[in-house]
């Protein structure tokens, strides 16, 4: 499924960034972002195999988690945990995931 592939690609990019975060950010905001990413991946995988009538609830939860993830990544950038180039890379990928999720929600 394209959204799952896009999420996996985004997470792998994030994972490469995580090991280079300053120690303070790595164990606070970095850990929060990492947990949100794994939650989102699990929700997307579950939504893929959920019955159509139950799928909307999963997708709405996925959308909320994605918004939280974007917020915490922006906060990490504002706190100088990641530079502008890395922020641009990861936020661009997450915007693409958001558009895919919106289309998926509209199709239900």
Automatic annotation (TrEMBL):
It comes from the Bacteria. This is Four helix bundle protein. It comes from Candidatus Uhrbacteria bacterium RIFCSPHIGHO2_02_FULL_57_19.
């Amino acid at each position: 499924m394209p959204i799952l592939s896009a999420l996996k690609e985004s997470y792998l990019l994030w994972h490469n960034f995580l090991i280079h975060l300053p120690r303070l950010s790595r164990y606070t905001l970095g850990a929060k972002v990492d947990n949100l990413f794994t939650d989102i991946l699990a929700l997307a995988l579950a939504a893929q195999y959920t019955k159509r009538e139950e799928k909307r609830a999963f997708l709405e939860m996925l959308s909320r988690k994605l918004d939280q993830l974007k917020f915490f990544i922006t906060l990490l950038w504002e706190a100088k945990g990641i530079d502008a180039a890395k922020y641009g890379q990861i936020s661009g990928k997450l915007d693409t995931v958001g558009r895919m999720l919106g289309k998926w929600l509209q199709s239900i």
